[in-house]
Each structure stands twice: as C-alpha cells, then as structure tokens.
Amino acid sequence: MSELHKFLFDGLPVRGMLVRLTGAWTEMLARRAGNTATGPYPEPVRALLGEMAAAAVLMQSNIKFNGALVMQVFGDGPVKLAVVEVQPDLSLRATATLHAAVPDGTSLSQMVNAAGAGRCAITLDPKDRRPGQQPYQGVVPLQALEGQPFEQFSDVLQHYMRQSEQLDTVLVLAADDRVAAGLLIQRMPVQGQANLAGTAVPDDAQDGSGEDFNRIAHLARSLTRAELLTLDADTILRRLFWEEKLVRFAPLQGAEGPHFACTCSRERVARMLQGLGRAEAEGIVAEQGRIEVGCDFCGQQYRFDAVDAAGLFASAAVDQPPASSALQ
Ligand SMILES: [Zn+2]
C-alpha cells in the first residue's frame, strides 16, 4: 500500500517526510503498458517519472496547498514532456510524452536536457481559482548556475527549493518497476517558536540549528537508492536517525494516503472540443467519422460520433474557457 510518513526532530527546526508509492505507482505503469498507442515506459523514463511522482507528493504535503501541484519537465531530448499532478487529497496521476526512442542507460541530461534548454516547472493551481487569477508557477533550468547539467532529478528540485523557498532541503529519490519513493528533510523557518510537535525551539536556534540540520542532512544523504526502494519506512528511519529524537505522526495510507486517480471526464473532454471550435471538430468528424480523444494519464478513450459532435455545439451557451490539454 502506498504510504506517506511525516516526522519531526524533537526540539530542532527540522522536519522530514518519507513517501513510498507502490500500488499508486504500479497502477500508473500498468495503464501506460496497456496503452497500445504508446506501450510501456522505457526504463530511464520510468525512473524519472517515478522520482517526479514521489517528489510531487512530498512537495504537495509539505506546502499544504488547496489545489493541484503540477510538476512538469519540458525536455529538449527524446522526452518532450513529463508531468505529475498531485491533488490536496494526495491522489495523483502522471504521464510522459516521448518523440524518440530512449535506450536503457540514457542519462537524465541526454533525455531532457540534450541542448541545455530543458526546464522544470512547478505550478500551484488553486482549487477555486477566481476569474483571471493565474496559477503560481516557478521554473528552473536543468543545470546548475555554472552550466553543469544535473544528472539526478533530486538535484533539480533541491536547486528549485533553494531558489523559491530559500529553505535548506535534502531530497533522496528512487524508482523502479515496483516502487517510487522519496525522503525529504527540510530546515524549518522557525525563530524561537514552537514546532509542530509543540516543543519549543530554543531562541538561539539560529546559531545551533545549522549544525543540527547539517548533521541530519548528512545522515539523510547516506540513504542509498537500493535501501530506499527495498526497505520499509520504519527500518529506513531507524537506521538513519537512531541517534536522533524523532517525533512521528500516523502514516497516511489507503484512501488517506497517496493513491492513483485521474480527473479526466467526458464533460472535460467535451469542453476541450468546444474550445477547439465547431469548424475544427466538424472537420475531424468529416475526415474520420468521429472524434476520439484518449486521456494520456489513465488511457481512458472518449468517443464522440457525428451526433455527439453536433450536440457539442448545439447549445448556445458555450462560455467555459477551454481546458488546457496538459491539465484536462
Ligand atoms: Zn484520465
């Protein structure tokens, strides 16, 4: 069962989270493998998308934002786009678009940053967005400031978090064909306040907390990908932090925890087609006899025959804006 564990270091302004996606992850892989138009993900793409999924769950839980967190990698190599979307209830979905083969062993930079033009964007799309309100978006390149391309996706996100939140963060991510998992350790922006466990952080935390964070960060970085993929959460946390005072919360799992769900629907696809316009839609029907739209995230096929298509434009009040195809 997929699960999310949150914890604090008692008395220290440091918090952590550990996510293990099992059922949620294998469901997404199985749906992609079952899509005859695309076939399964090549191994390097699967690794990237799994790490993105684990990271997106950690970030959504970390910010407690009432809306979707959308993590996108816009690649300039064989992978054109990789997307993970996590809702506040920790339901998530993911997809990747390839326009060339990705052989085993392809590096992250070869895959998405071949010419140095790859980007990672994180979008926070509020649930009840007011008309005209833009979602918040932060974008970072896929290389360090010195121009050295990142070869670990966790380095991209650590770079992002330093820039956007200015909080020291350690991320360890890994994914294979069974598990997508991640560990996040973050220094909390606390000044002489109680942390979430209700334990007062000393006023001089600003002097000592750097040392504490560095020690904990060092321990977190010692976690190997193999350990992250194969060990359960209790074992990982015990092995890494057995000398620290950990305050743990009840894990979020099952319906409360990370789970696969797709937000696509026939109504949303209909709105997208309405956004295309009558001429375009009728053109497709004339050419192909019907309109077929497949959801990239879950594989669901939506079919509109000539009568359905005519019905899309029959009602006078077509006033909704078109849904973006990436966020449909
Ligand atoms: Zn779907």
Question: How would you describe this protein?
Answer:
The chain has 328 residues and is of the alpha+beta class. The protein has 2 domains: 3-260, 3-Layer(bab) Sandwich (Hsp33 domain), CATH 3.55.30.10; 266-320, CBS domain Like (Alpha-Beta Complex), CATH 3.90.1280. Helices cover 34% and strands 26% of the residues. It has helices at residues 23-33, 43-63, 108-112, 153-164, 205-221, 225-230, 233-241, 266-276, 278-288, 306-312; strands spanning 3-9, 14-21, 67-74, 79-86, 91-98, 119-126, 136-141, 169-175, 180-187, 246-248, 252-253, 259-260, 290-294, 301-305. The strands form 3 sheets. Strands 1, 2, 8, 9, 10 and 11 form a 6-stranded antiparallel beta sheet that branches. Strand 8 and strand 9 (180-187) form a beta hairpin. The two termini are 27 Å apart. The model is unreliable at 192-205 and 323-328 (pLDDT under 50). It binds zinc ion. Residues 262, 264, 295, 297-298, 300 line the site of zinc ion (ZN).
The name of the CATH superfamily of the largest domain reads: Hsp33 domain
Helix content: 25-40%
DSSP helical segment count = 10
**How does the helix and strand content classify structurally?**
alpha+beta
> What percentage of amino acids are in beta strands?
25-35%
Euclidean distance between termini CA atoms: 27 Å
Q: Biggest sheet: strands, sense, closure?
A: 6 strands, antiparallel
Counting structural domains, the number is 2
- The count of strands amounts to 14
Q: Give the ordered list of helices and strands.
A: EEHHEEEHEEHEEHHHEEEHHEEH
Rounded Rg: 22 Å
Principal-axis shape? elongated
CATH class of the largest domain: Alpha Beta
Regions with little confidence, pLDDT below 50 for 5+ residues: 192-205, 323-328
Bound molecules: zinc ion
Shape-level CATH architecture of the largest domain? 3-Layer(bab) Sandwich
Mean pLDDT: 89
Could you tell me the CATH topology label of the largest domain.
Hsp33 domain
